[in-house]
Amino acid sequence: MSSRDTIQYAADAGLLMIPGDPAKDVAPGFAVFDDSVPALRAFVLGRLRKEDVRPAPRKAGCDAVIPVRVSLVPRPDNDYDSRAVSVAAPPEATGSVLDRHMGYLYSSALHVTSESIRRLTEETGTPVGCHGWIELYDLESDSRFHDDDSEDGAEDADWEPDRHEPVSWAEQKAFGYAVGSVRVLLPERQTVRALVDAYLSDHRPEAAREPAPAGVEPGLRRALAERLAVRLRTALNHRAAGGAWGRETARDRARRRRDAEALPLLRAWEAYRGSAHGFRGLRAVTRSVFRHTRVLVLDESGVQVGQYHLPDGPLTLVDERVRSEALRALRAHGLDVDAPEDLAALDGFPDAVVVVAAGIWSIRLSKPGLSRDRLPEAGWFDPDSGTLTVYAAPLAGPMTVLLRRHGVRPLLVTWGAPREEMERHNLRAAVAPAGTSPVSRSSRVTAAAQRLVPEPHRRWLAAKPDGGQTPAARAGGLLPPLVDDAAQNPYYRRALESLFGAPVALAERGPCRLCGRCAQSAHAGLFYCHGCCTLARNGVLRDTGEDGAWTEAIVYALRRLAEIEFSGPPSLAQLDRVCVPFDDPGLVDEVMLCRFLVPRPASALLGTRPARPARTWAEWLAHAGLLTDGVRTSMGTATRATDGHLCRSLFERHVDDFLHHWGVAHEPEPAYPRHPELNTTGLRADWRLADGTFVEALGLVTKEAYAAKVARKRELARHHGLRLVTVTPEDLDRLPEVFADWLPEGSAG
Known about the structure:
single chain, alpha+beta, nine-stranded mixed sheet, five-stranded mixed sheet, 28 strands
């Protein structure tokens, strides 16, 4: 495998080699069909030498590799795609390019190589190739290694090579590795194009002066003519014997099956387009993470409905029915986005989503209960060439409409088969359970700590996301371990100090009270590790739009927190701060575990077409029965606090419940002293404390008239020498600090 940055001729292989970098470039497989299995088997067996085994590149995903060089041959004779490129053994092997043909590059790779390889081959008359490798795996990773109790060779008695396994198990054991796929190393399209342009610019005079070597293009034509003659003779014999021109191939059967499976979708999509979607209150927001800016479309619960891909689109959506509302939200956000065409006329769209990645638009079919990355693919679009490739002919029309609603019109619509990896993905999607796991993160809470939660709900503290697979296992590698050293990990220190409102004692260490791993403390004796602090701030459950037993655990946790920590429904911000007496470690443990069971609205992951929209925080509180008297007004949700005081918004109630919970006497709606200029209308504060301090909950400071009234109240308090404490929604997670002077000794403040 070469990392050179120019195309060079490899005399021993007889190829113009396109360089590749295993650390940067992709290494896709290629489609192998029954007629190319013999060539693939001969190629692999001819290179299985122990001395050629090398460590696997970081991105390879296998245990070891054997570097190889392969030939890339343009195949305009391909019936399905004239851009096809054959992956063949190098010319050093015997036979024509048809005899050495091992498979075709997948359609998704043709936009990278097809045009450049054709130009390089035609203008130089020299075979073109690239680097690659044969994947190798430890034998112990194969289940047959552990189940193998037969005599040597017995397990291969009925074995025949096929496209999935061209090498027998006995041959793999003899070699010492399990043999995987052959991969080709291909730089991105712009790199290949630049390499070819540079090479042709340097060698064009020489290429024009010398005739094309024999056996390159003439050899391909001769081999194609010979194959055509053989096929004609075979077809004539079939026609004479049975009245048919030939037998149906596996590719023909697969195409016919996909076409038949697509017909019911067309009828289902008619009903889908006529039904209403469940998204409410769409708005657009701009978010930047590590200098990567995204414009998202969210509904009122905070669930992502779509994304506008900067700088010029497209706008991709989880439900195509909301496109008009999403466009209005983007315009209200300040983006000059035009509707691509008359959306009302483009009403034949499918129930599908577009996923943009690496310059290719993958078109995924919606399936209830599955997240977007698990949906089956039905085709893909290359915006550079304007080519739409569909896997079933009946889908061509609806997918063309879908692309036009995204602002593009395909120049060419063609049929193709999914590449091998995508075919496996689609098979998994076909049998996937119709439901998204409500568990978003796994915890390691000990059995003793779990007993603080009732039996029906504690199982969620030990559940694993997605059927027991951790994110690291799904990605094929291990995530780096969390650093439980607050001196080295600022995120850990910040989480501890936020939860307990005190600096971390860096010199003190002890076992985490919830899971037992090494931890530090922001309060004497209360050791909690980085992982448990993260789960307390983010939760282990997420809203999936489908209620179940996990919903009952959330209701329990919210009611329990309202009872023992807040004396009423907590705000989302208040969960970032533990507000129980720290001298009761068992109570601290319990409220930490209850936070584990409370989902954050931002973590919602709705499957396609959920039973209900994701709940807002206020809706979760209402679902738990904590807002039974709430009434929506222009100022917010009016409700009565736990002590009976009428509050005009949930924000006011959170502050009132906090004062009530800690026994701080507070009188609602006290009148400010009169003043001939500053108070002619009878201004009132939100509360007055026992020592005469006035408290204002400032929830609408962005409104000009409200801000002017607050300014008058501040000036009025200064004029009369009144102590005034103001609280904003941003202060909800630090109420113990705001009211520290009035809290009892030894409290959370």
